[in-house]
Design brief:
CATH topology of the largest domain: Rossmann fold
Order of helices and strands: EHEEHEHEHEHEHHEHEHEHEHEH
Mean pLDDT: 94
CATH class of the largest domain: Alpha Beta
Structural class: alpha/beta
Number of strands: 12
Strand content: 15-25%
Radius of gyration: 21 Å
Shape: globular
Largest sheet: 6 strands, parallel
Distance between the termini: 45 Å
CATH architecture of the largest domain: 3-Layer(aba) Sandwich
Helix content: 25-40%
């Protein structure tokens, strides 16, 4: 019989990571309908709460800031004050099991990272990074529930779908750019894609957020057609973007947070993939068609698994505009 639980969940990362974590929270809510779920996350990802009614409260922990150790003590203090029945944390750091033990929370769930994790956690789940991220996170609660939510779900007021439309969101986060993690094709390629799609009679819409200012500006400087809708700047937050994506028949994007929003909405999505692993970042369904270069790089996918910055050659992102448009038209 379902029990009432006060549950603390911990998941640090970008907005995409929080969307990946949603199926885990949804299954917990199904198992414990009267539960109160608190999510500890980085401040940059707070917009996830606007996409779901599963999360009751947020705790902001700036784990990547200058005062990360103070922030961890803050998390410990709030964990003890919250009188939680259960804590569930993602992350493969060996210190996580110690952190969860110090919270004093009776039921503690995390990944197996060695003998200490098995000793300090109620259950140490196997950590398999070679699978879709939603599934990886959901492994944390396999012993808690038989519910299995495979894909993220978000709740926004959907718009009427515009027939024959292609919404393009070319940008990636500024954090990726600052870290020299190039994950998408250059603006000139995006501009040519717009020209080709318009020539095929598609209703093209261009979107982007504050991080995409330079990218959008260069696209607009290089695009030749005027027969598309420039919606850059019209979405003020993640909820606005989700509603816009819901209006598209097809969605073309980079490997970034909007991709995961589209997946959660069930929109036909075409993400550009280069150095990152599409098998771990998107579900293997007909609704998501990754577009990749025909390069022979033996290291691909390399970003995060073999290196923390992208290489100079970027052969994995040498994708022609015609191939991108052909894929969208064919599938």
């Amino acid at each position: 019989m379902p029990q009432q639980k006060k549950i603390l969940t911990i998941n640090f990362g970008g907005i995409g990571d929080e969307i990946f974590f949603l199926p885990t929270l949804i299954s917990l809510k199904k198992q414990f309908p009267d539960s109160y779920i608190t999510l500890a996350l980085e401040p940059r990802s707070k917009g996830v709460k606007d996409l779901t009614d599963i999360i009751d409260d947020l705790i902001f922990i700036d784990i990547k800031g200058k005062n990360k150790y103070i922030e961890m003590f803050k998390l410990l203090a709030l964990s003890r004050q919250g009188k939680f029945d259960m804590v569930i944390s993602s992350g493969g750091n060996k210190l996580i099991s110690i952190l969860l033990f110090l919270t004093g929370i009776k039921e503690r769930y995390g990944y197996y990272t060695g003998k200490l994790s098995k000793l300090l956690l109620t259950h140490a789940a196997p950590l398999n990074k070679n699978q879709y991220a939603c599934t990886m996170y959901h492994d944390l609660i396999r012993t808690i529930t038989n519910y299995n939510t495979e894909l993220p779900e978000i709740k926004v007021k959907k718009r009427e779908v515009i027939a024959n439309s292609v919404l393009i969101h070319p940008g990636v986060s500024k954090m990726s750019i600052m870290k020299n993690c190039i994950k998408t094709v250059p603006p000139k390629i995006w501009a040519k894609v717009i020209d080709l799609l318009v020539a095929e009679g598609k209703k093209v819409m261009l979107a982007g957020g504050p991080d995409d200012d330079e990218c959008i500006k260069e696209i607009l400087e290089n695009v030749r057609t005027q027969n598309f809708e420039n919606l850059y700047g019209t979405t003020k937050n993640l909820k606005d973007l989700a509603q816009l994506i819901s209006s598209a028949e097809k969605f073309l994007c980079s490997d970034s947070a909007p991709l995961h929003v589209a997946v959660a909405l069930g929109v036909k999505t075409y993400p550009i993939f280069g150095p990152t692993d599409d098998k771990t970042l998107v579900p293997q369904t007909p609704q998501v068609i990754p577009i990749k270069a025909d390069d022979k790089c033996e290291l691909k996918p390399c970003l995060w698994t073999k290196r923390i910055t992208t290489c100079k050659n970027l052969d994995c992102l040498k994708i022609s505009p015609s191939k991108i448009v052909e894929t969208i038209s064919k599938f």
